[in-house]
Amino acid sequence: MDIFISGSLAYDRIMDFPGHFADHILPDKIHVLNVCFNINGLVEKFGGTAGNIAYTLAALGESPYIVATSGKDFDRYEQWLNQNRLPTGWIKRIPDVLTAGAYITTDLDDNQITAFNPGAMAFEADLPPLNSGSSNAVVFIGPGNKTDMMSFADKARQAGVAFFFDPGQSLNIWTRDEIRQAVSGALCFTSNDYELSLFLQIAKWSLNDLYDQVEVVITTRGPEGVVLDLKGEKTLVPAVSVKNVLDPTGAGDAFRGGLLKGHALRMPWDVCCQMGVVAASHAVEHYGTQEHLLDWNAFCSRYEENFGPILC
């Protein structure tokens, strides 16, 4: 199956502050905030929704196409994608602009202050052609350039190609009419529980309204697991327990990679979700969103330990 993943590519620059933000922010001076945090160091990781999902899919034997933009500093990220056998033909390089970057500072309470520079993501990508009526292709539309998200959804609808829509952290940039139009006709709407509530508020829809527009609603709930919602028939797929949760940051994107792998294998939706939570369990055991060393055998072994023999 041809899998196209539209979304962000970014460098995550992660910093640790060996203290507590609250000790350095004066509540009565919040209107003139001027603070500086001395960090222990900076670690750069490869990130962005599209890159993270594609990484997990590649580890599970797929070769998805990333549809995104990158900047003049993309060379080392591109080498990483090549190393993981990921095609880069639909990644558009924007000259004289930096690749998107997230600058994340975390304190001892796991509070985070993040600055995000969209960089090349502010520019539209080149969207690949879709064969009309193809049942051997799927499009995943994740948070990224809003014009790309709308255009790719429209292109998939016109071609009759199934697409997943996941607005993620892009929700603050949408109007009611835009978000309604973008999600209309999606095979699956994915989000976390907070994003689902915010989406319904922005769209001014009820869940029943969303059921009228998409076939499946899948909502991640962190350590509780995932809710599979088939037009009101809800099933909780529990998270997979791991001994050492090192970094939950990439769990959501890893889940989406496992979910899409299940869809590519034409699994039932509950199995797709189970595959998603298994992939997520591997991600949280490592620091960073593209650090989990995963192969199909290890994946199947953990799946069988939690859900029984995999159906493939």
Residues in helix, %: 25-40%
Task: Give me the side-by-side strand order of the main sheet.
Answer: 5-4-1-8-9-10-11-12-13
Residues in β-strands, percent: 15-25%
Give average pLDDT, whole number.
94
Q: What's the end-to-end separation, in Å?
A: 15 Å
Domain Carbohydrate kinase PfkB: 41-292
Protein name: PfkB domain protein
GO molecular function, one term: kinase activity
Pfam family, one: PfkB
Description:
With 312 residues, the chain is an alpha/beta fold. The chain has a domain at 8-22 and 37-50 and 69-126: 3-Layer(aba) Sandwich (UDP-N-acetylmuramoyl-L-alanine:D-glutamate ligase). It has helices at 49-59, 75-83, 146-159, 176-183, 193-203, 207-213, 251-264, 269-283, 296-307; strands spanning 2-6, 10-16, 42-47, 65-70, 91-93, 100-106, 112-117, 137-141, 162-165, 188-192, 216-220, 226-230, 233-237. The strands form two sheets. The chain has a nine-stranded mixed beta sheet, with helices on both faces. A four-stranded mixed beta sheet has the order 3-2-6-7. β8 (137-141), α3 and β9 (162-165) form a beta-alpha-beta unit. α1 (49-59) packs across α7, α3 (146-159) runs parallel beside α4 and α8 (269-283) crosses α9. It is globular, with a radius of gyration of 19 Å. The mean pLDDT is 94.
